[in-house]
Protein backbone atom coordinates (compact mmCIF):
# COMPACT_ATOMS: atom_id res chain seq x y z
CA UNK A 1 0.00 0.00 0.00
CA UNK A 2 1.02 3.61 -0.36
CA UNK A 3 0.31 6.20 2.33
CA UNK A 4 0.33 9.89 1.41
CA UNK A 5 0.40 12.26 4.37
CA UNK A 6 -1.28 15.71 4.15
CA UNK A 7 -2.97 14.77 0.89
CA UNK A 8 -4.44 17.59 -1.19
CA UNK A 9 -7.97 16.34 -1.65
CA UNK A 10 -8.94 18.85 -4.35
CA UNK A 11 -6.93 16.58 -6.65
CA UNK A 12 -9.24 13.69 -5.76
CA UNK A 13 -12.65 15.32 -6.22
CA UNK A 14 -14.03 16.06 -9.68
CA UNK A 15 -15.25 19.41 -8.25
CA UNK A 16 -11.60 20.44 -7.72
CA UNK A 17 -12.45 21.60 -4.20
CA UNK A 18 -11.13 20.13 -0.96
CA UNK A 19 -8.61 20.76 1.80
CA UNK A 20 -5.75 18.75 3.23
CA UNK A 21 -6.47 15.31 4.63
CA UNK A 22 -4.49 13.67 7.40
CA UNK A 23 -3.66 10.84 5.00
CA UNK A 24 -4.68 9.14 1.78
CA UNK A 25 -4.03 5.41 1.51
CA UNK A 26 -3.81 3.54 -1.79
CA UNK A 27 -4.74 -0.10 -1.17
CA UNK A 28 -3.11 -2.66 -3.45
CA UNK A 29 -4.45 -5.95 -1.96
CA UNK A 30 -7.71 -6.50 -0.14
CA UNK A 31 -5.87 -7.98 2.88
CA UNK A 32 -4.18 -4.57 3.34
CA UNK A 33 -7.59 -2.96 3.61
CA UNK A 34 -8.52 -5.23 6.52
CA UNK A 35 -5.28 -4.19 8.26
CA UNK A 36 -5.91 -0.48 7.66
CA UNK A 37 -9.51 -0.75 8.89
CA UNK A 38 -8.35 -2.26 12.19
CA UNK A 39 -6.42 0.98 12.84
CA UNK A 40 -8.41 3.71 11.08
CA UNK A 41 -11.00 5.43 13.28
CA UNK A 42 -12.50 8.04 11.01
CA UNK A 43 -12.14 7.01 7.38
CA UNK A 44 -13.78 7.64 4.02
CA UNK A 45 -13.56 5.46 0.92
CA UNK A 46 -12.98 7.64 -2.12
CA UNK A 47 -13.42 6.29 -5.65
CA UNK A 48 -13.00 8.65 -8.60
CA UNK A 49 -14.45 11.53 -6.54
CA UNK A 50 -17.05 12.29 -9.22
CA UNK A 51 -19.91 12.45 -6.72
CA UNK A 52 -18.12 13.78 -3.64
CA UNK A 53 -17.83 17.36 -2.40
CA UNK A 54 -15.01 17.76 0.11
CA UNK A 55 -14.70 20.62 2.63
CA UNK A 56 -11.83 23.09 2.61
CA UNK A 57 -9.16 23.37 5.33
CA UNK A 58 -7.72 20.57 7.46
CA UNK A 59 -9.62 17.30 7.33
CA UNK A 60 -8.95 14.97 10.23
CA UNK A 61 -9.80 11.82 8.27
CA UNK A 62 -8.09 8.91 6.61
CA UNK A 63 -9.12 8.67 2.97
CA UNK A 64 -8.80 5.20 1.50
CA UNK A 65 -8.80 4.52 -2.22
CA UNK A 66 -9.24 1.18 -3.96
CA UNK A 67 -8.22 2.59 -7.37
CA UNK A 68 -5.39 0.03 -7.55
CA UNK A 69 -7.81 -2.84 -6.87
CA UNK A 70 -8.94 -2.79 -10.47
CA UNK A 71 -8.82 -6.32 -11.88
CA UNK A 72 -11.43 -7.48 -14.39
CA UNK A 73 -11.93 -11.09 -15.48
CA UNK A 74 -14.32 -12.92 -17.78
CA UNK A 75 -16.10 -15.88 -16.12
CA UNK A 76 -18.35 -18.49 -17.74
CA UNK A 77 -21.92 -17.69 -18.95
CA UNK A 78 -21.33 -13.98 -19.76
CA UNK A 79 -20.39 -13.27 -16.15
CA UNK A 80 -17.63 -10.79 -15.28
CA UNK A 81 -15.65 -10.36 -12.06
CA UNK A 82 -14.75 -6.70 -11.49
CA UNK A 83 -12.84 -5.11 -8.62
CA UNK A 84 -14.32 -1.97 -7.08
CA UNK A 85 -11.53 0.43 -8.05
CA UNK A 86 -11.90 -0.12 -11.80
CA UNK A 87 -12.94 2.92 -13.81
CA UNK A 88 -16.43 2.27 -15.15
CA UNK A 89 -15.22 3.34 -18.63
CA UNK A 90 -12.72 0.45 -18.57
CA UNK A 91 -15.59 -1.92 -17.82
CA UNK A 92 -17.45 -0.59 -20.87
CA UNK A 93 -14.28 -1.16 -22.98
CA UNK A 94 -14.09 -4.72 -21.64
CA UNK A 95 -17.75 -5.29 -22.55
CA UNK A 96 -17.03 -4.12 -26.08
CA UNK A 97 -13.94 -6.33 -26.42
CA UNK A 98 -15.87 -9.37 -25.21
CA UNK A 99 -19.12 -8.51 -27.04
CA UNK A 100 -21.15 -8.27 -23.81
CA UNK A 101 -24.28 -6.21 -23.36
CA UNK A 102 -26.39 -4.73 -20.53
CA UNK A 103 -24.81 -1.61 -19.10
CA UNK A 104 -24.40 0.46 -22.30
CA UNK A 105 -26.87 3.08 -20.98
CA UNK A 106 -24.39 3.95 -18.24
CA UNK A 107 -21.52 4.66 -20.68
CA UNK A 108 -19.96 8.05 -20.00
CA UNK A 109 -20.50 8.01 -16.22
CA UNK A 110 -17.06 8.99 -14.93
CA UNK A 111 -17.15 7.03 -11.63
CA UNK A 112 -15.53 3.82 -10.42
CA UNK A 113 -17.41 0.53 -10.29
CA UNK A 114 -17.43 0.74 -6.45
CA UNK A 115 -18.88 4.27 -6.51
CA UNK A 116 -21.63 3.25 -8.90
CA UNK A 117 -22.59 0.14 -6.96
CA UNK A 118 -22.55 2.00 -3.62
CA UNK A 119 -25.41 4.27 -4.70
CA UNK A 120 -26.98 2.10 -7.40
CA UNK A 121 -26.04 4.63 -10.05
CA UNK A 122 -27.72 4.54 -13.40
CA UNK A 123 -28.86 6.39 -16.49
CA UNK A 124 -31.51 6.29 -19.19
CA UNK A 125 -33.64 3.66 -17.43
CA UNK A 126 -30.85 1.24 -16.45
CA UNK A 127 -29.39 0.90 -12.96
CA UNK A 128 -26.14 -0.89 -12.22
CA UNK A 129 -27.96 -3.31 -9.89
CA UNK A 130 -29.95 -4.61 -12.90
CA UNK A 131 -26.88 -6.64 -13.92
CA UNK A 132 -25.33 -7.58 -10.57
CA UNK A 133 -25.19 -11.21 -9.41
CA UNK A 134 -23.04 -10.98 -6.28
CA UNK A 135 -21.07 -8.39 -4.31
CA UNK A 136 -18.03 -8.93 -2.12
CA UNK A 137 -18.03 -6.51 0.80
CA UNK A 138 -16.35 -5.76 4.11
CA UNK A 139 -19.01 -5.25 6.76
CA UNK A 140 -18.90 -3.15 9.93
CA UNK A 141 -17.23 -5.95 11.89
CA UNK A 142 -14.44 -6.10 9.30
CA UNK A 143 -15.69 -9.40 7.91
CA UNK A 144 -15.14 -10.09 4.24
CA UNK A 145 -18.43 -11.46 2.86
CA UNK A 146 -20.01 -12.33 -0.48
CA UNK A 147 -23.70 -11.45 -0.78
CA UNK A 148 -26.07 -12.40 -3.58
CA UNK A 149 -28.03 -9.50 -5.06
CA UNK A 150 -31.34 -10.93 -3.86
CA UNK A 151 -30.12 -10.57 -0.27
CA UNK A 152 -29.27 -6.85 -0.60
CA UNK A 153 -31.88 -4.09 -0.41
CA UNK A 154 -31.64 -1.45 -3.12
CA UNK A 155 -33.79 1.18 -4.79
CA UNK A 156 -33.36 4.40 -6.80
CA UNK A 157 -29.88 5.78 -5.92
CA UNK A 158 -29.96 3.88 -2.61
CA UNK A 159 -28.54 0.61 -1.34
CA UNK A 160 -28.17 -1.26 1.92
CA UNK A 161 -24.42 -0.94 1.33
CA UNK A 162 -24.68 2.84 1.58
CA UNK A 163 -27.04 2.66 4.53
CA UNK A 164 -24.78 0.30 6.49
CA UNK A 165 -21.50 1.85 5.30
CA UNK A 166 -20.09 -1.41 3.96
CA UNK A 167 -17.07 -1.38 1.65
CA UNK A 168 -17.34 -2.90 -1.81
CA UNK A 169 -14.35 -5.00 -2.83
CA UNK A 170 -15.55 -6.68 -6.01
CA UNK A 171 -18.68 -7.44 -7.97
CA UNK A 172 -19.80 -10.27 -10.25
CA UNK A 173 -21.98 -9.01 -13.09
CA UNK A 174 -24.25 -11.21 -15.21
CA UNK A 175 -24.44 -9.75 -18.70
CA UNK A 176 -25.87 -10.76 -22.07
CA UNK A 177 -24.29 -11.26 -25.50
CA UNK A 178 -24.15 -8.48 -28.11
CA UNK A 179 -22.45 -5.16 -27.24
CA UNK A 180 -24.37 -2.19 -28.64
CA UNK A 181 -21.62 0.13 -29.89
CA UNK A 182 -24.01 2.52 -31.61
CA UNK A 183 -25.95 3.13 -28.42
CA UNK A 184 -22.75 3.90 -26.51
CA UNK A 185 -21.64 6.39 -29.17
CA UNK A 186 -25.05 8.06 -29.19
CA UNK A 187 -25.23 8.38 -25.38
CA UNK A 188 -21.70 9.73 -25.05
CA UNK A 189 -22.55 12.37 -27.68
CA UNK A 190 -25.72 13.20 -25.78
CA UNK A 191 -23.74 13.68 -22.56
CA UNK A 192 -21.23 15.91 -24.34
CA UNK A 193 -24.08 18.04 -25.68
CA UNK A 194 -26.14 18.24 -22.48
CA UNK A 195 -23.60 18.28 -19.65
CA UNK A 196 -21.16 21.08 -18.75
CA UNK A 197 -18.13 18.80 -19.08
CA UNK A 198 -15.73 21.72 -19.64
CA UNK A 199 -16.00 22.78 -15.97
CA UNK A 200 -15.42 20.83 -12.72
CA UNK A 201 -18.73 19.35 -11.51
CA UNK A 202 -20.21 16.37 -9.67
CA UNK A 203 -22.97 15.36 -12.07
CA UNK A 204 -26.56 15.68 -10.83
CA UNK A 205 -26.60 17.58 -7.55
CA UNK A 206 -30.10 16.50 -6.51
CA UNK A 207 -32.03 13.25 -6.81
CA UNK A 208 -35.19 13.38 -8.89
CA UNK A 209 -38.16 13.50 -6.48
CA UNK A 210 -40.73 10.83 -7.34
CA UNK A 211 -42.71 11.95 -10.39
CA UNK A 212 -40.53 15.04 -11.02
CA UNK A 213 -37.23 16.05 -12.57
CA UNK A 214 -34.98 18.22 -10.39
CA UNK A 215 -33.65 20.02 -13.47
CA UNK A 216 -37.18 21.05 -14.47
CA UNK A 217 -38.05 22.19 -10.94
CA UNK A 218 -34.92 24.38 -10.88
CA UNK A 219 -35.91 25.97 -14.20
CA UNK A 220 -39.47 26.52 -12.93
CA UNK A 221 -38.07 28.20 -9.81
CA UNK A 222 -36.33 30.66 -12.17
CA UNK A 223 -32.88 30.22 -10.66
CA UNK A 224 -30.89 28.54 -13.45
CA UNK A 225 -27.56 30.33 -13.89
CA UNK A 226 -27.53 31.78 -10.36
CA UNK A 227 -23.99 32.20 -9.03
CA UNK A 228 -22.60 32.35 -5.50
CA UNK A 229 -18.87 33.07 -5.21
CA UNK A 230 -17.18 30.88 -7.81
CA UNK A 231 -20.00 28.29 -8.03
CA UNK A 232 -22.85 28.47 -10.52
CA UNK A 233 -26.04 26.54 -11.32
CA UNK A 234 -25.02 25.42 -14.80
CA UNK A 235 -26.65 27.22 -17.70
CA UNK A 236 -26.27 24.02 -19.72
CA UNK A 237 -27.84 21.61 -17.21
CA UNK A 238 -29.63 23.12 -14.18
CA UNK A 239 -29.14 20.06 -11.95
CA UNK A 240 -25.35 20.48 -12.25
CA UNK A 241 -23.39 22.93 -10.11
CA UNK A 242 -20.15 23.95 -11.76
CA UNK A 243 -16.94 25.28 -10.27
CA UNK A 244 -16.56 28.26 -12.55
CA UNK A 245 -13.98 30.40 -10.75
CA UNK A 246 -12.05 28.71 -7.95
CA UNK A 247 -15.21 28.09 -5.97
CA UNK A 248 -14.92 27.40 -2.28
CA UNK A 249 -16.69 24.57 -0.50
CA UNK A 250 -18.85 27.20 1.25
CA UNK A 251 -19.95 28.69 -2.12
CA UNK A 252 -21.28 25.29 -3.22
CA UNK A 253 -23.02 24.66 0.11
CA UNK A 254 -24.69 28.11 -0.02
CA UNK A 255 -25.79 27.45 -3.60
CA UNK A 256 -27.28 24.08 -2.65
CA UNK A 257 -29.26 25.73 0.17
CA UNK A 258 -30.34 28.51 -2.22
CA UNK A 259 -31.69 25.94 -4.70
CA UNK A 260 -33.48 23.91 -2.03
CA UNK A 261 -35.12 26.99 -0.48
CA UNK A 262 -36.23 28.44 -3.82
CA UNK A 263 -37.57 25.17 -5.21
CA UNK A 264 -39.43 24.53 -1.93
CA UNK A 265 -41.00 27.99 -1.79
CA UNK A 266 -41.91 28.12 -5.50
CA UNK A 267 -43.03 24.53 -6.11
CA UNK A 268 -43.57 23.07 -2.62
CA UNK A 269 -41.15 20.21 -3.37
CA UNK A 270 -38.15 19.35 -1.23
CA UNK A 271 -35.00 18.43 -3.07
CA UNK A 272 -32.54 15.97 -1.59
CA UNK A 273 -28.84 15.92 -2.45
CA UNK A 274 -27.58 13.08 -4.63
CA UNK A 275 -23.96 14.12 -4.09
CA UNK A 276 -22.02 13.02 -1.01
CA UNK A 277 -20.75 15.87 1.17
CA UNK A 278 -17.75 15.57 3.47
CA UNK A 279 -18.30 18.28 6.09
C1 LIG B 1 -20.24 14.56 -15.58
C2 LIG B 1 -20.87 13.58 -14.64
C3 LIG B 1 -21.94 12.80 -15.05
C4 LIG B 1 -22.52 11.88 -14.17
N1 LIG B 1 -23.57 11.13 -14.62
C5 LIG B 1 -24.14 10.25 -13.77
C6 LIG B 1 -25.24 9.43 -14.20
O1 LIG B 1 -25.70 9.51 -15.33
N2 LIG B 1 -25.75 8.55 -13.32
C7 LIG B 1 -25.27 8.41 -12.05
O2 LIG B 1 -25.78 7.58 -11.31
N3 LIG B 1 -24.25 9.17 -11.62
C8 LIG B 1 -23.68 10.07 -12.43
N4 LIG B 1 -22.63 10.85 -12.00
C9 LIG B 1 -22.20 10.78 -10.59
C10 LIG B 1 -21.04 9.83 -10.33
O3 LIG B 1 -20.21 9.67 -11.44
C11 LIG B 1 -21.53 8.46 -9.90
O4 LIG B 1 -22.28 8.61 -8.73
C12 LIG B 1 -20.41 7.49 -9.63
O5 LIG B 1 -20.95 6.27 -9.32
C13 LIG B 1 -19.51 7.90 -8.48
O6 LIG B 1 -18.37 7.07 -8.49
P1 LIG B 1 -17.01 7.57 -7.88
O7 LIG B 1 -16.06 6.44 -7.92
O8 LIG B 1 -16.56 8.81 -8.49
O9 LIG B 1 -17.48 7.82 -6.37
P2 LIG B 1 -16.93 8.87 -5.31
O10 LIG B 1 -17.44 10.22 -5.61
O11 LIG B 1 -15.48 8.70 -5.11
O12 LIG B 1 -17.71 8.32 -4.03
C14 LIG B 1 -19.11 8.38 -3.98
C15 LIG B 1 -19.59 7.56 -2.79
O13 LIG B 1 -19.31 6.19 -3.06
C16 LIG B 1 -18.60 5.63 -1.98
N5 LIG B 1 -17.71 4.61 -2.51
C17 LIG B 1 -16.87 4.69 -3.58
N6 LIG B 1 -16.23 3.51 -3.75
C18 LIG B 1 -16.68 2.69 -2.77
C19 LIG B 1 -16.39 1.34 -2.41
N7 LIG B 1 -15.50 0.59 -3.07
N8 LIG B 1 -17.05 0.81 -1.33
C20 LIG B 1 -17.94 1.56 -0.64
N9 LIG B 1 -18.25 2.83 -0.93
C21 LIG B 1 -17.63 3.39 -1.98
C22 LIG B 1 -17.84 6.80 -1.36
O14 LIG B 1 -17.49 6.53 -0.01
C23 LIG B 1 -18.86 7.91 -1.50
O15 LIG B 1 -19.75 7.87 -0.41
C24 LIG B 1 -22.03 11.76 -12.86
C25 LIG B 1 -20.95 12.56 -12.44
C26 LIG B 1 -20.37 13.45 -13.31
C27 LIG B 1 -19.20 14.28 -12.83
From TrEMBL:
Pathway: Cell wall biogenesis; peptidoglycan biosynthesis
Gene Ontology annotations for the cellular component aspect, listed alphabetically: cytosol
Cofactor: FAD
Keyword Oxidoreductase: yes
Keyword tags: Cell cycle, Cell division, Cell shape, Cell wall biogenesis/degradation, Cytoplasm, FAD, Flavoprotein, NADP, Oxidoreductase, Peptidoglycan synthesis
Domain FAD-binding PCMH-type stretches: 17-178
Catalytic activity: UDP-N-acetyl-alpha-D-muramate + NADP(+) = UDP-N-acetyl-3-O-(1-carboxyvinyl)-alpha-D-glucosamine + NADPH + H(+)
Keyword NADP: yes
First-tier enzyme category under EC: oxidoreductase
Subcellular location: Cytoplasm
Known EC number: 1.3.1.98
Family note: Belongs to the MurB family.
PANTHER family the UniProt entry points to: UDP-N-ACETYLENOLPYRUVOYLGLUCOSAMINE REDUCTASE (PTHR21071:SF4)
Function statement: Cell wall formation.
Protein name: UDP-N-acetylenolpyruvoylglucosamine reductase
Amino acid sequence: MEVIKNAKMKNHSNMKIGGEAKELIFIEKKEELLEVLEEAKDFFIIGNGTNTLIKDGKIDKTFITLKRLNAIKLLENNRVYVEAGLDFSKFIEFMEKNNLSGLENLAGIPGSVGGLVYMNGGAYGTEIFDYIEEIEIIDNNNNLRKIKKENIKYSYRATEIKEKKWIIISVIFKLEKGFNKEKVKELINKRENNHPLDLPNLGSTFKNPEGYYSAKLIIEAGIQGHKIGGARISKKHPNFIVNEENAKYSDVIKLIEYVKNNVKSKTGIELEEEIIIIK
